[in-house]
Amino acid sequence: MSALRHFALTAVIGFLALFGTGDLASAQIKIGAVLSVTGPASFLGDPEKRTLEIYVDEINAKGGVNGQKLQLVVYDDAGNAENARTFATRLVEEDKIVAMVGGSTSGTTLAMMQVAEDAKIPFISLAGATQIIEPVRKWVFKTPHTDRMACEKIFADLKSRNLTKIALISGTDAFGKSMRDQCVLVAPKAGISIVHEENYGPRDSDMTPQLTNIRNKAGVQAVINPGFGQGPAIVTRNYHQLGIKLPLYQSHGVASKQFIELAGPAAEGVRLPAAALLVADKLPNNDVQKPVVVNYSKTYQAKTGQQVSSFGGHAYDGFMILVEAMQRAKSADSSKVRDEIERTKGYVGSGGIVNMSATDHMGLDLSAFRMLEIKGGDWTLVPGS
Q1: pTM of the predicted model over 0.70
Q2: Domains and CATH numbers, the chain
Q3: Kindly report the CA angle at 153 between 151 and 156, in degrees rounded to 5?
Q4: Is 327 left (phi over 0), alpha (psi -120 to 50) or beta?
């Protein structure tokens, strides 16, 4: 018996020496996500969480990545930046993840970025602010179009309508402030004059005073509302109640059917830049994104019973970019995966065609945005967009 025990112990030690204790303990590849599943940004975080769960299960059912199953570890920050930082730290220090896909809002993402940088963990954000990727940080990437791109897309549409003088009514949240700043920055180059500005807080429930000021301002030809959450829906309803007839533009921060439901009939005629995903069935058959967005839409709706939003699409793209990077790296080593994420070329996703580089950690150009208009309670493509 003593000899048998000695043989068994020697075999175990040899096995551990050959494969390492870490590989035994990490039979699964741990991917972390901190999302705003509840709270004021739940319309972002809920479809993101559902999307990640759907596709982790799908990948695992096919054998995983490089022969290893994926384990998704999700924390709900409820839209709070401090919570997000705390949970990101927990993912790194306690859960021992190899990568993060998450950060539903610009505010929570900005709070999490340094955690990823310090830990040398690749982090693919699902938020919009330009400063997430400018300046470039080695370990931080993002999938959504930037707020600057949203301004540029809206300005191009305004110029096509011979409208050059605008008013801004912006949310004071991180995204609203960031997009406002980007619009102010790029307006002169686009030939757009900002003749009046107003703003509102995240808890404001009536924007009538601000919109009245805009209505009374001479020379305004159109209005842009940088913001996300319920604020833009309130702006849209108040806008309609005041009888303002000027074109109203929203941001890609409201690119879900929930915005149309909250705004109601007042949303008719509102335009916004958004991903092709929202008009999947309306894309021409020769559009290279159509198979991707149609398949994602069908899968998501079948699994959840919900309509798709561009936010779930951002999670789909972030997850698939990560999976493909691990497959190319033939490893779950964080450093090798980071390098392959940065080498992503020609990835056709829900948000556009992604071509990343050492100087571009998003990889989308303006052609990835479609200009949409709400008609009859649904999204329609603006001709020529």
Answers
A1: yes
A2: 21-145+291-362 (3.40.50.2300), 147-274 (3.40.50.2300)
A3: 105
A4: alpha
